[in-house]
Design goal:
The complex is a heterotrimer of chains A (474), B (253) and C (319). Chain A has 474 residues and is mainly alpha-helical. Chain A has helices at 2-13, 16-23, 35-54, 80-90, 95-123, 131-152, 158-172, 178-186, 195-225, 245-270, 276-279, 298-306, 323-348, 364-383, 386-393, 397-431; strands at residues 26-27, 63-65, 77-79, 229-230, 239-244, 312-314, 317-319, 356-357, 440-444, 449-454, 469-471. Chain A has two domains: 30-358, Cytochrome Bc1 Complex, Chain C (Up-down Bundle); 360-456, no CATH class. Chain A contains 16 helices and eleven strands. In chain A, the strands form five sheets. Chain A has a three-stranded antiparallel beta sheet, with no helix packed on it. In chain A, β6 and β7 (317-319) form a beta hairpin. In chain B, α3 (74-82) crosses α6 (174-183) and α6 packs across α7 (198-213). Classes of the chains: A mainly alpha (474), B mainly alpha (253), C alpha+beta (319).
């Protein structure tokens, strides 16, 4: 039956020759290569659940009085957006499941992209000819953070609304164009005219289209350039060894997709996320603690909390405090990240194409840089929850803040140095495998001396019997 | 023999008379027969001298280790004792906000309250709360506006800086909540009847009591800490399970 | 029964796999080389596992449908759908790993740069087109100019997204004589606030206005350490400050009454109420602007004017 379909398509598109090659395409089976797929399938989960949610969401900041299922808010004025989220959560059958599924998928999506990026970095997969895909991937990371932020701000609850205010202030702090950019994006002085609807457009339309298009190009480039692979028997820079796309890899990939959907479905109904009814509708003069963004913006939150009370005046004009941790630092960091393939090329002088991957230990200095960045990112992210940590440990918040400031300096360096030496150590061990096996047996003989019997290895035959003799025997 | 008996009786009568002079009518405890009120005050004095005077001074005048109890009011004493914040196990400690079992029984606490207020009348009385008369929605709004910034939206508590913590309210009694509002223990501000009247108090308590029994329609509450807990769960349970799966599906070469 | 279902399933798979057979019968081109696929050993256990997993999945899906129809309880829906998807996942993965011919194929990579003549051809085609256009000299420059200016003009509609930065950055709704009201709109009297208490206040008629939000705090008279001009606006221990944090704009909702410190929940900026809300910890650099107050004979509090400085976080044109 499927054969008929193929022939039907071929009559119209000439697809058979493409399909023949496509189905026999080799996809390496290493588990680390599936991390990108995890991100892809999380994205599909987001797309499906998001389309469903859009049917029920109202992107309006106009206030109504709520009369609905959630009694503690009955009669309370709130935005239509917030009310629609309450309706989804309490009145639409399976609405809460899909809403939570969507939010968990967003967190897993960002986590998968991050781990995937780390795999690409530590294995050197960004090297020529894959620099374009690297640029696309870093852009996808930024877009994922942006689409996540616009998404969780849509319910117009007290927690996300506080984050909106911070975003406005960050825009304000940009020199020269700050006030303009804030006023134009938000439609005036905070809270602005129509930010919910604008965020909806960004979330379901503009950012969505960009992500979908970039994922498409990303996958096409992988297809066209063929996947990289680790070194191994039969693998060279000139080939790629793996399972055929059809049916083997397809079956396993569908299985992975189902695992992801299953995990997200279980989380979506068994672990409560973003209970906006507890936070209450957003009012610009209310706040609650603890106040953190979703995890993938935790680094930004930590940067804002750790950066000291410094700001400068340039030509008599104020460059406000949030500019440095929230604009300058990410711009510099992501610039370095974007340019990394060329930075590495400049450092190593290696401009050859690479299709065989490094293991992390094969390039100790790069792995050390990566470890530095990971430790830095983790420290910043944890610093964003300094009040939660303070409450948990019974330590004053001020101490936790100072601790993280210190950690931000020394932990990444320690991580980098440790990684560097561990990589060298692993390389050393790889070079001398025979060290790991017992090479000889030493016996004490009757006269009190020592005898050594060298054991045969596959590479060296057994030596003369009797071995060497030493000791105190007479 | 008869003389001794007569002296004892005289002593007893004199003490009773003296006590009666010291006892003031205690409004908060309502119509209490003078004799049992006097007993309460006497018992309270004994307890105070034994457990409290070392820091708060004899007669509650204060020492270098503990503040004077001048005009603190019944609510403050009852709150500190019933939540176990007082007495301190170690004199140099600061009162902790973590819930502890009260050191004293209800009768003993009442006695201490009676004693301290007999020394220093005034200050907020122990509030009477009637959650069933309160309005759930009003309580929610009051809590969000006044309390959630420190105690968190789900009343699980949070650090408020300076080494201070706004504790979880999920196990506090109705009276303790109302007392804290009126007294402002620790670093907490206080709210008098002009700011939050009786109906406000009833509503606030009603909402806080309802919070504990409100079902979590979404599943496990994850401590109600918000995105921090959710991030950990997403990484460990979410991505963690998925990575286990891809280790199974894929190869390691 | 089970074996028959299994046979049917295997036949269906074979039908799908026939496609692969068609493909493999073609002579492999020079671009790909294939190792001889190993014949699949019969794996009854794997088949049974797959069959079992598929049955579990079907049952769980039915349970999901039932749960949906009977009230759509979130945890039940999640449990049934999660189990159904997980079981189906197990089926696919075990099938892919144990019931299919396992083979490794090797594909040759085409060298990425195109052959030399193709590269030269492309370069020449580009260059020729460029020459054709730029040969016209002035016309080419005009074309560039027109396209460029059109591109810039396309950005103009962005300007309509909002008003330009205006006086609202510098002023709020507070005016001289504006009575202070609480969040419920009731006017604030001195007796409404105890020492050690705090209240969020707005100008009358503007309850909820985001930039006008202020905190009214009552401290012991005499504790305030303000310069005389500021002290004049803090009568009898009543002092009011903007509630908008000067760091990133969050409402400064936490008040440590004993130590007279306001704390912002977002990044823990801490402000000393007695010293003009000067920042003492955290990233805030500027004090919370004060709202000068007047205590009337009727006991009501009124503002003496707008805040002493622009409220909220800093920006480029802030004085």
């Amino acid at each position: 039956m499927i054969g008929h379909l193929v022939l039907w398509l071929d009559d119209r598109l000439g697809a058979a020759s493409f399909l023949r090659k496509a189905m026999r395409k080799a996809f390496p089976d290493h588990w680390a290569f599936m991390l990108g797929e995890v991100a892809l399938y999380s994205y599909l989960a987001l797309l499906g659940s998001g389309i469903y949610l859009t049917f029920f969401y109202t992107a309006s900041g106009d206030h109504i009085v709520y009369h609905g299922t959630y009694r503690p808010l009955d009669g309370v004025p709130m935005s239509e957006a917030y009310a629609s989220i309450l309706r989804i959560s309490f009145d639409v059958p399976a609405g809460l499941l899909i809403r939570q599924f969507h939010h968990w998928a967003a967190l897993v999506f960002a986590a998968a992209i991050s781990v995937h990026l780390l795999r690409i970095f530590f294995t050197g997969a960004f090297r020529r000819p894959r620099e374009i895909n690297w640029l696309i991937g870093v852009t996808l990371l930024l877009l994922a953070m942006a689409i996540g932020f616009t998404g969780y701000s849509l319910p117009d609850d007290l927690l996300s609304g506080t984050g909106l205010r911070i975003a406005y202030s960050i825009l304000l702090s940009i020199p020269v164009v700050g006030t303009w950019s804030a006023f134009l994006l938000f439609g005036g002085v905070y809270p602005g005219a129509d930010i919910l609807r604008r965020f909806l457009i960004l979330h379901i339309f503009l950012l969505q289209a960009l992500i979908a298009a970039l994922i498409g190009v990303h996958l096409f480039l992988i297809w066209h350039q063929k996947h990289t692979q680790f070194r191994g028997p039969g693998r060279t820079e000139r080939n790629v060894v793996g399972s055929p796309l059809w049916p083997n890899y397809t079956m396993k990939s569908i299985g992975l997709a189902l695992v992801i959907f299953s995990v997200l479905a279980l989380l979506g109904g068994l672990a409560q996320i973003n209970p906006v009814w507890l936070y209450g509708p957003y009012e610009a003069w209310q706040a609650s603690s603890p106040a953190q963004p979703d995890w993938y913006l935790g680094w930004a939150e930590g940067a804002l909390r750790l950066w000291p009370a410094w700001e400068i005046r340039l030509f008599g004009r104020l460059v406000a405090n949030p500019f440095f941790p929230s604009v300058l630092f990410p711009v510099v960091f992501f610039l370095v990240l974007y340019l990394w393939p060329w930075i590495e090329r400049w450092i190593t002088g290696d401009a050859r194409p690479h299709h065989l991957l490094d293991r992390a230990r094969d390039c100790p200095w790069r792995s050390a840089v990566g470890a530095w960045a990971v430790a830095f990112g983790i420290a910043l992210t944890l610093a964003g929850s300094n009040d939660v940590i303070a409450n948990l440990l019974g330590v004053p918040v001020e101490i936790v803040t100072v601790y993280f400031r210190v950690m931000l300096g020394i932990a990444p360096i320690l991580a980098a140095v440790l990684t560097y030496f561990v990589c060298h150590g692993l390389q050393e061990r790889d070079r001398q495998p025979e060290r790991r096996r017992i090479r000889a047996i030493v016996r004490v003989n009757a006269r009190g001396g020592y005898e050594e019997e060298t054991l045969p290895t596959p590479d060296s035959p057994a030596p003369e019997p009797g071995g060497g003799e030493s000791g105190t025997g007479s | 023999m008869a003389l001794v008996r007569a002296c004892l009786v005289a002593l007893g009568l004199a003490s009773a008379a003296g006590l009666l002079l010291l006892v003031r009518p205690h409004r908060a405890s309502g119509a209490v027969p003078p004799r049992s009120q006097a007993q309460a005050v006497e018992r309270g004095r004994a307890l105070f001298d034994r457990f409290c005077a070392s820091c708060h001074g004899s007669g509650g005048l204060g020492t270098s280790q503990g503040p004077p109890l001048l005009g603190v009011g019944a609510a403050a004493v009852d709150f500190m004792l019933s939540t176990g914040r007082m007495p301190l196990a170690v004199a140099t400690q600061q009162p902790t906000v973590q819930r502890q079992t009260a050191r004293f029984s209800r009768a003993e606490i009442d006695a201490l309250v009676a004693y301290v207020t007999s020394l220093y009348p005034g200050g907020p009385p122990v509030p009477r709360v009637h959650p069933e008369r309160g309005d759930l929605v009003r309580g929610n709004r009051l809590f969000t506006s006044n309390c959630a910034p420190c105690h968190s939206a789900a009343a699980v508590g949070d650090a408020v800086g300076g080494g201070a913590v706004a504790p979880s309210l999920r196990q506090s009694t109705a009276t303790q909540i109302a007392e804290a509002v009126r007294v402002g223990p620790g670093v907490m501000p206080r709210f008098g009847p002009e700011a939050l009247d009786q109906h406000d108090l009833d509503s606030l308590v009603r909402y806080l009591l309802a919070l504990r029994t409100l079902p979590n329609p979404g599943g496990l509450g994850l401590g109600f800490v918000g995105p921090v807990a959710e991030g950990f769960v997403a990484w460990i349970a979410g991505l963690g399970l998925i990575v286990l799966a891809i280790r199974w599906i894929g190869t390691t070469t | 029964m089970l074996l028959r279902a299994l046979a049917a399933a295997v036949r269906a798979v074979a039908a799908i796999l026939t496609l692969g057979d068609i493909v493999r019968q073609e002579r492999p081109g020079p671009a790909s080389r294939e190792a001889a696929p190993a014949p699949p050993a019969p794996d009854a256990r794997a088949s049974a596992l797959v069959a079992g997993a598929l049955l579990v999945s079907i049952a769980a899906t039915i349970a999901f449908g039932a749960a949906y129809a009977l009230g759509a309880q979130t945890q039940l829906l999640a449990g049934t759908s999660g189990v159904s998807l997980a079981a189906l996942a197990v089926a696919f993965i075990v099938w892919g790993q144990r019931l299919l011919q396992q083979e490794q194929i090797t594909e040759e990579r085409a060298p990425e740069p195109s052959p030399e003549e193709a590269r030269r051809g492309a370069e020449e085609a580009l260059a020729r087109g460029e020459r054709e256009i730029s040969r016209r000299g002035a016309l080419g420059w005009l074309l560039a100019g027109a396209l460029g200016s059109l591109g810039i003009a396309a950005l103009f509609p962005v300007r309509s997204l909002g008003p330009g930065p205006d006086r609202l950055l510098f002023h709020t709704k507070w005016r001289a004589g504006a009575p202070l009201v609480g969040i419920d709109g009731k006017p604030i009297r001195a007796a409404d606030l105890l020492i050690g208490s705090v209240a969020t206040v707005f100008p009358e008629g503007y309850v909820g206005d985001p930039s006008s939000q202020a905190l009214l705090i009552r401290v012991e008279p005499g504790l305030l350490e303000l310069p005389p001009a500021q002290l004049a606006g803090a009568p009898q221990g009543f002092v009011a400050y903007s509630k908008i944090c000067t760091h990133a704009g969050c409402p400064v909702g936490l008040y440590r009454a004993r130590t007279h410190e306001l704390v912002c929940p977002c990044h823990q900026s801490t402000f000393d109420v007695l010293a003009g809300a000067r920042p003492v910890f955290g990233p805030a650099t500027r004090p919370l602007p004060q709202l000068p107050l007047r205590l009337g004979a009727d006991g009501r509090l009124r503002a003496l004017g707008d805040f002493t400085e622009p409220v909220g976080p800093g920006f480029w044109g802030m004085p």
